[in-house]
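[step 3/7] inverse_fold.run input=structure_tokens len=612
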């Protein structure tokens, strides 16, 4: 619409009919080659008009850029050690800070003798406000050494308060929950003859960011500037202003990418840390870098989940009754005030943690993708929202969709087996959405899927499908998994994905998203789980919180894009995590003959199942 206004203005200046003009490279061009740039054409109140509900769109066949692969400009610095992230920032006169975190959630600082720390080389200042404790030095390693000395001097009183980790299923389902039926469908004429039930669990999981959270802050006059890798500069800004008790206008946040940052990890907390420390050192830029053990122990985790499924088949092997229950916490505690950030929680006058709330459908939070895309005569889906949070949690990529799709698509395979049906044909039998069917058929074809096929010895084939949020991109994934029966070690050999994200803007970017989703989901599904005792988080490094390593990378990942020119763009950034998890789980079941339902599907669990 704006382009049309600019063309009309150009026609007036050229004294030519509108239809004689064309647009190219940010300008309106006349038949004789005269050009007027968009910037030259903007005048007066020409844009102060009522926007219309629909625009006249270009014909996709005329696109010159959209739909073509475009190389990313950020990659060279990221693979050569250049300045790419907030962790790489170095400002003139910058000081370095480290935090001394409490050893556990409810620990109280009872004593801290700083005299020895103050004598260390490069020491600048100890900043303490209640349970918030930090040290500032001239150089980074000086700050690390001072942090270790300060940590040794700090005395804390701890209180046990965490549930038994090996009883998390019972803990979650027994906590007080707000129960909501989010989908109900009834057809009394459809009666099942064979019924099965299954329970699936997901542990708390860490973002596991490769670069621990970091921020740089500087107070100049009354203005606080923070460079941060937060995903929400405006809510984080509001939280920091509230924490510092200053007007919103005096706080400015500048987004800089973070290494391995996605979802709600420790980025917002590091920003608050830096602001609180910088306030004590006016004029100087202060860089705060978390340590690995702090990132693993204190970042907000992806919430644990429990799903219980029950379904019945009729005499024709068709699902006629479907019941799905999911128990989980909120899936976002992003700053909605100071109380969402650690620094504000640990101050002498602490800010209360905001009340957890569920995220509304249709996108949803813990109930994201809980409503199946398949069509069943009878269906009942319940979201059991648990306000109480045993550990610190917030948004992690795909929110509840990862586990809900894992559960639904694993159960679909279990039902297909009960019906004696091929898993791909069984899905198509229950799916009316044509675009969903196209994605399933494309993934199966490119994988070489055949009805009744058998995998080579110690290998298995798996399949899964979902439409992310039930309103974004479609994705189907077929997997081949190898299992070492002596050790239980699984390996994803190859994965073939098909995706429909509407009209494709950059095919390379879309392929990257699906490849990354498969790799990340593989790591979550086979390796990752936060561990804790009754007081402390115990998964504080890469040994106690293992993630996917290079030697486990699949031999091959193929992504096949179904382009839909002229159709709306669909989000694809998190569409692959759920299908990848279920596809791998189904392949493991195919390889071993044993169904695993408790994430992660670790080597030990696989070995125990084989030996059982």
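[step 3/7] decode complete -> sequence:
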């Amino acid at each position: 619409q704006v382009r049309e206004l600019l063309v009309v203005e150009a026609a007036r200046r050229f004294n030519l009919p509108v239809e004689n003009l064309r647009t190219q490279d940010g300008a309106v061009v006349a038949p004789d080659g005269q050009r007027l740039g968009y910037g030259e054409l903007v005048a007066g109140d020409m844009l102060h008009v009522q926007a219309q509900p629909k625009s006249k769109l270009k014909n996709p066949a005329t696109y010159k850029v959209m739909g073509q692969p475009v190389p990313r400009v950020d990659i060279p610095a990221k693979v050569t050690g250049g300045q790419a992230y907030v962790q790489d920032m170095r400002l003139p006169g910058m000081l370095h800070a480290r935090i001394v975190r409490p050893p556990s959630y409810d620990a109280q600082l009872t004593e801290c003798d700083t005299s020895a720390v103050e004598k260390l080389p490069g020491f600048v200042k100890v900043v303490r406000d209640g349970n918030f404790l930090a040290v500032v030095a001239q150089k980074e390693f000086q700050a690390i050494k001072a942090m270790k000395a300060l940590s040794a001097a700090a005395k804390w009183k701890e209180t046990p308060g965490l549930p038994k980790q090996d009883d998390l299923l019972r803990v979650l389902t027994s906590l007080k929950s707000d129960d909501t039926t989010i989908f109900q469908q009834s057809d009394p004429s459809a009666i099942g003859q064979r019924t099965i039930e299954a329970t699936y669990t997901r542990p708390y999981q860490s973002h596991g960011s490769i670069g621990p959270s970091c921020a740089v802050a500087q107070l100049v006059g009354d203005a606080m500037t923070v460079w941060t890798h937060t995903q929400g500069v405006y809510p984080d800004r509001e939280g920091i202003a509230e924490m510092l008790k200053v007007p919103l206008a005096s706080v400015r946040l500048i987004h800089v990418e973070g290494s391995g940052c996605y979802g709600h990890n420790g980025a917002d907390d590091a920003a608050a840390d830096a602001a609180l420390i910088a306030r004590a050192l006016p004029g100087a830029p202060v860089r705060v870098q978390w340590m690995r053990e702090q990132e693993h122990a204190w970042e907000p985790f992806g919430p644990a989940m429990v799903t219980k499924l029950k379904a019945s088949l009729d005499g024709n092997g068709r699902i006629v009754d479907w019941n799905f229950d999911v128990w989980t916490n909120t899936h976002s505690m992003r700053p909605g005030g100071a109380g969402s950030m650690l620094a504000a929680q640990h101050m002498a006058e602490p800010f209360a943690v905001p009340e957890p709330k569920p995220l509304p459908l249709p996108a949803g939070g813990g109930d994201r993708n809980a409503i199946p895309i398949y069509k069943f005569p009878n269906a009942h889906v319940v979201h059991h929202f648990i306000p109480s949070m045993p550990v610190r949690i917030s948004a992690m990529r795909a929110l509840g969709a990862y586990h809900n799709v894992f559960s639904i698509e694993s159960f679909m395979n279990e039902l297909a087996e009960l019906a004696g049906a091929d898993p791909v044909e069984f899905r198509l039998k229950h799916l009316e959405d044509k675009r969903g069917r196209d994605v399933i058929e494309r993934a199966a074809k490119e994988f070489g899927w055949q009805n009744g096929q058998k995998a080579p010895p110690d290998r298995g084939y798996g399949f899964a499908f979902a439409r992310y949020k039930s309103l974004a991109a479609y994705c189907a994934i077929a997997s081949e998994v190898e299992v070492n029966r002596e050790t239980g070690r699984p390996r994803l050999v190859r994965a073939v994905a098909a995706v429909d994200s509407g009209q494709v803007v950059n095919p390379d970017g879309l392929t990257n998203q699906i490849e990354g989703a498969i790799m990340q989901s593989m790591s979550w599904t086979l390796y990752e789980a936060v561990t804790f005792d009754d007081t402390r988080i115990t998964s504080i490094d890469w040994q106690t919180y293992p993630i996917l390593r290079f030697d486990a990378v699949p031999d091959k990942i193929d992504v096949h894009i179904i382009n839909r020119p002229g159709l709306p763009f669909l989000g694809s950034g998190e569409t692959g995590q759920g299908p990848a998890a279920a596809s791998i789980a189904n392949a493991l079941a195919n390889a071993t003959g044993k169904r695993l339902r408790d994430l992660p599907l670790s080597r030990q669990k696989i070995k125990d199942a084989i030996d059982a």
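[step 4/7] annotate
Residues 487 and 607 are 6 Å apart (CA to CA).
The chain has three domains: 2-57, 85-162+207-300, 305-331+366-611.
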